């Protein structure tokens, strides 16, 4: 148990638009005889070696001429044609600075390489877990995630890109190594000559045989969560008037998910606690610079949340998530659980508490730098155990 930390502080097109209800989003059809593809000359750029969590650099690096475009084209040059030709790809991100511009570049290069359709979250928003949920749900060939995870965001800070395959898993090293080799010899970028897509409006935009569908970033992910967890049981706790909690989205991507899930679906009360100076959802609006914060949910960067839970008459439960929504910190009144231990606790109780695992998990895995608590759970439950390069997961 730790004490609370100290507080710190462009070709013409004819557009035919129709409108309809939110459940049947509007469709904008751009009439053109054929999709015009431009071959943009380029040359290799140093430093595009992809790591286990994609390619991460400073925003100003990605904003250099053709830097992002080279990597995206190298990706298409590395994939078998059947993995994308006339297929469906998903696009999302954590809302950080440069995501909007990057989305337009990715869409145009995807169209230029023969992709049939791009499915993108509204305003370019899709958390990393949501992308992994949407890809198999929509039977997509794969998906792009624009994020630098828990790294700070803003013009002076970080940006990143990674690609997930058809089951939602990160691209294997065999592909990322091939992408890098292709960045060393790239000479052209295939880019469709189309205008920027309005990512703020739900609906479909078509350019010849290529289309972009802007979707609700929460819907498919929430549907999956309802199949995995017992929402009725969770609702019976969260909606109780004597249960108090605070969730800190750190002005990152999970801010878009907090209200639809906690309040609209689980019945929590969106209240402001005057005597304790906290809201049930803190920092719930995704911002391009994460509100000048560092979206890493730990005792240092989520210090406001820690102080609330360690304060006098603090709430019963607290949680925070990182920039792209795949890491967490869990707290109770005057105590906290590290992410390494939280996944071990979930694994130990999965069969009894989580409907999806009613037959029990088949195996457990953790990344190399993660603590050994999950190893002990696997040993106790006599489950297969794997040490992998990145991520925490059940099988």
Can you describe this structure?
- With 395 residues, this protein is of the alpha/beta class.
- It has 11 helices and 21 strands.
- Strand 1 and strand 2 form a beta hairpin.
- Helix 2 crosses helix 5.
- The longest helix has 15 residues, at 339-353.
- It starts with 13 loop residues before the first strand and ends with a strand.
Mean pLDDT: 87
Number of helices: 11
Largest sheet: 9 strands, mixed
- Given as residue ranges, the uncertain stretches (5+ residues, pLDDT < 50) are 1-24
Note the gap between the termini: 31 Å
Strand order of the largest sheet: 1-2-10-11-6-5-7-8-4
Q: What's the alpha carbon Rg, rounded to whole Å?
A: 22 Å
Shape: globular
What is the total tally of β strands? 21
Strand content: 15-25%
Q: How much helix is in the residues? A: 25-40%
Question: Structural class given helices, strands, pairing?
Answer: alpha/beta
List key phrases describing it.
395 residues, five-stranded mixed sheet, 11 helices, alpha/beta, disordered N terminus, nine-stranded mixed sheet
What's the short story on this structure?
By secondary structure, the chain is α/β, with parallel strands linked by helices. It contains 11 helices and 21 strands.
Secondary structure layout:
Layout: E1 14-18, E2 27-31, E3 37-41, E4 55-58, H1 59-62, H2 67-78, E5 88-93, H3 99-112, E6 117-121, H4 128-137, E7 142-146, E8 158-164, H5 173-183, E9 188-192, E10 203-207, E11 210-215, H6 219-228, H7 231-238, E12 245-248, H8 255-265, E13 272-273, E14 278-279, E15 281-282, H9 303-310, E16 317-321, E17 328-332, E18 335-337, H10 339-353, E19 363-367, H11 373-381, E20 384-388, E21 393-394
Parallel strand pairs: 2-10, 5-6, 5-7, 6-11, 12-15, 12-16, 19-20
Antiparallel strand pairs: 1-2, 3-9, 4-8, 7-8, 10-11, 13-14, 16-17, 17-18, 19-21
Helix pairs in contact: 2-3, 2-5, 10-11
């Amino acid at each position: 148990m730790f004490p609370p930390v100290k507080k710190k502080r462009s070709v013409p097109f004819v557009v035919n638009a129709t409108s309809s209800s939110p459940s049947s989003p509007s469709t904008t059809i751009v009439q053109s005889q054929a999709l015009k593809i431009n071959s943009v000359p380029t040359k290799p750029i140093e430093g595009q070696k992809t790591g286990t969590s994609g390619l991460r650099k400073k925003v100003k690096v990605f904003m250099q001429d053709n830097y992002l475009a080279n990597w995206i084209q190298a990706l298409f040059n590395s994939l078998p044609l059947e993995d994308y030709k006339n297929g469906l790809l998903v696009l999302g991100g954590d809302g950080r600075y440069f995501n909007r511009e990057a989305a337009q570049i990715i869409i145009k290069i995807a169209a230029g390489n023969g992709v049939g359709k791009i499915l993108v979250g509204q305003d370019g928003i899709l958390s990393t877990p949501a992308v992994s949920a949407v890809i198999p749900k929509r039977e997509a060939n794969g998906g792009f995630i624009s994020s630098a995870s828990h790294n700070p965001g803003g013009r002076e800070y970080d940006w990143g890109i990674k690609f997930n395959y058809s089951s939602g898993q990160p691209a294997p090293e065999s592909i990322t190594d091939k992408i890098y080799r292709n960045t060393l010899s790239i000479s052209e970028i295939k880019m469709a000559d189309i205008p920027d897509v309005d990512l703020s409006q739900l609906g479909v935009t078509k350019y010849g045989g290529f289309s972009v569908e802007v979707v609700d970033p929460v819907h498919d992910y929430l549907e999956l969560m309802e199949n995995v967890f017992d929402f009725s049981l969770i609702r019976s706790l969260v909606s109780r008037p004597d249960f108090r909690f605070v969730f800190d989205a750190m002005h990152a991507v999970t801010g878009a998910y907090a209200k639809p899930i906690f309040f609209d679906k689980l019945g929590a009360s969106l209240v402001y606690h005057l005597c304790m100076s906290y809201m049930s959802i803190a920092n719930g609006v995704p911002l391009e610079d994460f509100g000048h914060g560092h979206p890493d949910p730990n005792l240092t960067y989520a210090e406001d949340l820690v102080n609330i839970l360690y304060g006098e008459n603090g709430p019963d439960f607290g949680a925070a998530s990182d920039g792209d929504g795949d890491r967490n910190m869990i707290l109770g009144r005057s105590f906290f659980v590290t992410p390494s231990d939280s996944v071990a606790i979930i694994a130990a109780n999965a069969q009894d508490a989580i409907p999806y695992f009613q037959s029990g998990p088949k195996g457990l895995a953790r990344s190399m730098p993660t603590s050994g608590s999950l190893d002990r759970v696997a040993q106790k439950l006599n489950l297969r155990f794997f040490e992998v390069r990145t991520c925490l997961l059940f099988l």
